[in-house]
Amino acid sequence: MREYFVKKENGYTSSIQKGLSAVRSFRSGLSYGTGTREENIERLKRELASSDAVVIGAGAGLSTAAGLTYSGERFERYFFDFVERFHIPDMYSGGFWPFPDEETRWAWWARHIYFNRYIDPPKPVYKDLLALVKDKNYFVITTNVDHQFQRAGFDKKRLFYTQGDYGLFQSASGRIKKTWDNEAWVMLAMEAQGFVRDDSGVFQVPQDRKISMRIPHDLLPEIPEGGKAAMNLRSDDTFVEDAGWQEASANYAAFLREAADKRVLFLEIGAGANTPVIIKYPFWAMTAENPNATYACLNFNAAVCPKQIEDRSICIDGDSAEVLRELNMD
Question: Which of 79, 170, 190, 191 has the fewest CB atoms found within 10 Å of its own CB?
């Protein structure tokens, strides 16, 4: 079985290589695009309607626009005890925090997973995006690990989560090339900390705010084969690219190959500067080499394009939630 997947094309690696090769040629600098915001929204509507294929590249900014924020009120509501004891500034930092024991570390991760993976976001941003492409030939590549595309109804076969999934465990060593669903464990770990379900079935902090920052030792997660579990998140070379990941990577490569000469819209939303080699640079490169392609960038204070493809780019600065809402308006 492993040999079968090895023979499939790796869209992740090939697209990164394409982006890195091309980015050196964008020597004329960057542009904020042309036209007014209103003109660009109307232009993007036309491109969405007329494109043969739409490739969506989504970064953390999309989930932030949906209300899945990692700091501020939402963070302080669910992690107030961790903030008080450890002075953790935000959810992202907590994922790397040197907790005193495994029981505390996995209590943190149970909350982190649950409130970002197993509940719907406060705003319908993902559903608004789906409404724009549901009848189109689309594919999604994302660095997000919160599973919100599938929760919104996107076709699983048209999704590629490059950096992992909050809903999956793997072996801590990474030697076993499998992953396991963690939903049942997360629910047990939330109950063990004292969270209670509201009328809609969502875990909340109890009114007396008496919750634990530790889970019982016998609830520490292990993989079925025995041994410590770890999150299936790309942070070092132990990250497991399992059979599902390999298949999604191959599907992405096949989609790009089929759409190579067609009228393609590369729609980048909320992709920042942390990992530009995964989405941004490859999108620039593929737009540059296909004269029928258009590149669109929705981002807050970071909507830019290379000057070489400025005439085929749509840059819209602002809240992606508002932009997607406007795109759905008649």
Answer: 191
